[in-house]
Structure prediction request, 198 residues.
Amino acid sequence: MSQPTPPSPSPMRPLPALIFASRWLQLPLYLGLILAQAVYVFHFWVELVHLIEAVFGDTVALQKLVSSIGYKSDIAVTSLNETIIMLVVLALIDVVMISNLLIMVIVGGYETFVSRLRLEDHPDQPEWLSHVNASVLKVKLATAIIGISSIHLLKTFINAANYELQVLMWQTIIHVVFLLSALAIALTDRLMAGSDKH
Prediction:
């Protein structure tokens, strides 16, 4: 017995079709974010190579690391110490977390606002993408921003001697604001989801 063919969708009128097609204007933005991701990958490897070179006694690489992390000392830095290694590793983790944030924005944003990626049967489909929408994306982005802010705050506290008290205070306040904002977003989404069920 043959299956009835589903009715073909009626063609859109010109103005709604133009408005709907305008979502493709976001495509260059997502392509630009992919280029930004490539810049982050390059920066990660440059810092990692400097770290490895500094481990083997390269003073030029060591000075580049010290300069990039903003580390200052009363005595001349001639070799790696635990604080420098920790700050460099935290900087690398920071790059990875921002890169993860970029992937969430690129993949989730494209899937939500531009076009379906059709990854349902792909073995590498991200778990969160199966139920992504604008609301879920907001909460995930807020969580990622809190993680990045936490890394920045930890880097500042480890290197606190090189910062003024006012800078430490404002970084802590901004981090707390991020936390409260994420809680507010999550609470609002939960309340809206609850009201949709009724």
